[in-house]
């Protein structure tokens, strides 16, 4: 009888330990926090935005506690691989080059790149018309790649690269660049602001097949599969739609 009681106590202790271990599981999500409305900091210094809300919703579905870790854009993939966080939810486009360094989940939104310039300027966006212009974009982005591939590398126009999108907007409003090429939905948000009211989209998007995913370290299939399953759940139960509508009057999925 005494042995049986000891067995029950040991089994109960194991269950408590397992429950505590699950409750204590914690993941860190990497976010740039300088790319509104997808990720930014509010007046109190808290990280906010579409990416943060999506990350929180995925963590809730996975039943894990998640902590935000901010990172400069240039170093966000090296920081993931250095284990400073477990996954990146920061509007990271899925590209063949990045696939060599990280693994991606299914896309959680679709993106486009489009020019913006002053409303009173006749700005044509075909590569031939860009010759002699000074064009701005955030470095290490799909927009930067497009500019390089369509004349920037050949010196047909000058490309100014910025560490954050906010700094790119500052140079546009100060007249240091003729136009900016950036993600359409980030531009859409900025054009609604006081700073952007005298600017507009120019031409058609130069890239309409940009898919954005969540990055995990190479070979971390367990976490990638959990994130994919959670993404399917938030799309199916309407959570994704509510987050989308908080930021945009149209679907970006």
Please, could you describe this protein's structure?
Helices cover 39% and strands 28% of the residues. By secondary structure, it is α/β, with parallel strands linked by helices. Strands 1, 4, 5, 6, 7, 8, 9, 10 and 11 form a nine-stranded mixed sheet that branches. It is globular and about 55 Å long. Mean pLDDT is 92; it is low at 3-23.
Mean pLDDT: 92
Q: How much helix is in the residues?
A: 25-40%
Task: Give the amount of beta strand, in percent.
Answer: 25-35%
Radius of gyration: 22 Å
Topology, number of strands: 11
Provide a count of the helices: 9
Report the structural category: alpha/beta
The multimeric state of the shown protein is single chain
Global morphology:
globular
Q: pLDDT under 50 segments (min length 5)?
A: 3-23
Could you state the order of secondary-structure elements as H and E? HEEEHEHEHEEEHEHEHEHH
Note the gap between the termini: 61 Å
How many strands, what sense, and barrel or not for the largest sheet?
9 strands, mixed
């Amino acid at each position: 009888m005494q042995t049986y009681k000891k067995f029950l106590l040991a089994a109960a202790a194991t269950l408590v330990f397992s429950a505590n271990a699950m409750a204590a599981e914690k993941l860190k999500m990497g976010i740039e926090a300088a790319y509104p409305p997808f990720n930014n900091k509010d007046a109190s210094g808290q990280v906010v935005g579409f990416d943060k809300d999506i990350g929180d919703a995925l963590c809730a579905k996975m039943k894990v506690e998640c902590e935000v870790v901010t990172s400069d854009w240039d170093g966000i993939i090296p920081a993931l691989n250095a284990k400073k966080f477990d996954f990146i939810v920061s509007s990271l486009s899925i590209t063949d080059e990045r696939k060599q360094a990280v693994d991606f989940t299914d896309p959680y939104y679709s993106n486009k790149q489009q020019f913006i310039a002053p409303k009173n300027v006749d700005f044509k966006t075909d590569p031939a018309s860009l010759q002699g212009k000074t064009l701005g974009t955030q470095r290490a982005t799909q927009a930067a790649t497009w500019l390089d591939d369509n004349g920037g590398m050949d010196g047909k126009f000058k490309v100014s690269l910025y560490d954050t999108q906010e700094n790119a907007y500052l140079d546009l409003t100060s007249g240091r660049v003729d136009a900016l090429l950036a993600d359409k939905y980030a531009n859409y948000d900025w054009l609604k602001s006081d700073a952007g009211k005298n600017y507009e989209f120019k031409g058609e998007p130069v890239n309409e097949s940009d898919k954005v995913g969540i990055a995990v370290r190479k070979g971390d299939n367990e976490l990638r599969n959990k994130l994919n399953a959670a993404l399917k759940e938030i799309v199916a139960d309407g959570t994704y739609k509510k987050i989308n509508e908080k930021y945009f009057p149209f679907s970006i999925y």
